[in-house]
TrEMBL record:
<feature type="binding site">
    <location>
        <position position="168"/>
    </location>
    <ligand>
        <name>Mg(2+)</name>
    </ligand>
</feature>
<feature type="binding site">
    <location>
        <position position="143"/>
    </location>
    <ligand>
        <name>substrate</name>
    </ligand>
</feature>
<dbReference type="InterPro" id="IPR023198">
    <property type="entry name" value="PGP-like_dom2"/>
</dbReference>
<dbReference type="InterPro" id="IPR036412">
    <property type="entry name" value="HAD-like_sf"/>
</dbReference>
<keyword id="KW-0413">Isomerase</keyword>
<feature type="binding site">
    <location>
        <position position="9"/>
    </location>
    <ligand>
        <name>Mg(2+)</name>
    </ligand>
</feature>
<feature type="site" description="Important for catalytic activity and assists the phosphoryl transfer reaction to Asp8 by balancing charge and orienting the reacting groups">
    <location>
        <position position="112"/>
    </location>
</feature>
<feature type="binding site">
    <location>
        <begin position="112"/>
        <end position="116"/>
    </location>
    <ligand>
        <name>substrate</name>
    </ligand>
</feature>
<keyword id="KW-0119">Carbohydrate metabolism</keyword>
<comment type="similarity">
    <text>Belongs to the HAD-like hydrolase superfamily. CbbY/CbbZ/Gph/YieH family.</text>
</comment>
<dbReference type="GO" id="GO:0008801">
    <property type="term" value="F:beta-phosphoglucomutase activity"/>
</dbReference>
<dbReference type="InterPro" id="IPR010976">
    <property type="entry name" value="B-phosphoglucomutase_hydrolase"/>
</dbReference>
<keyword id="KW-0479">Metal-binding</keyword>
<dbReference type="InterPro" id="IPR051600">
    <property type="entry name" value="Beta-PGM-like"/>
</dbReference>
<dbReference type="InterPro" id="IPR023214">
    <property type="entry name" value="HAD_sf"/>
</dbReference>
<feature type="binding site">
    <location>
        <begin position="7"/>
        <end position="9"/>
    </location>
    <ligand>
        <name>substrate</name>
    </ligand>
</feature>
<dbReference type="Pfam" id="PF00702">
    <property type="entry name" value="Hydrolase"/>
</dbReference>
Length: 223
């Protein structure tokens, strides 16, 4: 393996909860039922894709202009929720995982479909820990399409088969597998059943990677 490509929301920081709160408020404003179980379907899905899924439960149809206005209002709310983020919002094990990759000589990429990813990385103080961060605005097809992971691998100069992807969302794991990479799921095995292996959080990342390197389970050997 030569590179590790991380998702951001729900893997490195708990912005997944802020997305949930912002979508919940929007759904309530449109009288659409919304709960944690439904939100699971939105994880990893881009902004307009998520909005379409929510509005599918509404009693009326929406014009493109209305949809854009709703997406803008969700994003404005989301931005107020992330405004106070700081390095204290890093999930346990996140910095250690990123630093371990670099110490091993592995390339480190970020593949988030969030257009707020650069802002969040800056607030967390970890921008310089990545060799390449995909700009979500340049991605045509969101997860579960593999485009974003393939772009990261290409920009890092690494064959997708030599990459490990790390994801908390089912759609993200599907994208990693479709890109031909080894998938580490972060969360519940029942949700992330497509992943090659699942860990509860990044605190277990280093041990998992060392085991993979020893057994050659990913792609033969490490860097
Ligand atoms: O609205 P943004 O910040 O561009 O984010 C898009 C998506 O980014 C993903 O990382 C999140 O898992 C989704 O929940 C979110 O909808
Ligand atoms: Mg995520």
């Amino acid at each position: 393996m030569k590179a590790v490509i991380f998702d951001l929301d729900g893997v490195i920081t708990d912005t997944a909860h802020y997305h949930f709160l912002a979508w919940q408020k929007l759904a309530q404003s449109q009288d659409v039922h919304f709960d944690e179980a439904f939100n699971e379907n939105l994880k990893g899905i881009d902004r307009m894709g998520s909005l379409e899924l929510i509005l599918a439960g509404a009693s009326r149809s929406y014009s493109d202009a209305e949809k854009l206005a709703l997406a803008d209002s969700k994003n404005a709310h989301y931005k107020t929720l992330i405004a106070e983020m700081s390095p204290a919002d890093l999930l346990p094990g996140a910095v250690a995982a990123l630093d371990w990759c670099r110490a091993q000589g592995l390339k480190v990429g970020l593949a988030s479909v969030s257009k707020n990813a650069f802002t969040v990385l800056e607030s967390l103080g970890i921008t310089d820990k990545f060799d390449y961060v995909v700009d979500a605005a340049t991605i045509a097809r969101g997860k579960p399409d593999p485009e974003i992971f393939l772009r990261a691998a290409s920009e890092l100069g690494v064959d997708p088969a030599d990459c490990v992807g790390v994801e908390d969302a089912a759609a993200g794991v599907t994208a990693i597998k479709a890109a031909g990479m080894f998938a580490i799921g972060v969360g519940q095995p029942a949700t992330l059943w497509q992943a090659d292996t699942v860990i509860p959080g990044l605190e277990q990342f280093k041990n998992m990677m060392e085991t993979l390197c020893k057994t050659g389970a990913s792609s033969g050997s490490c860097s």
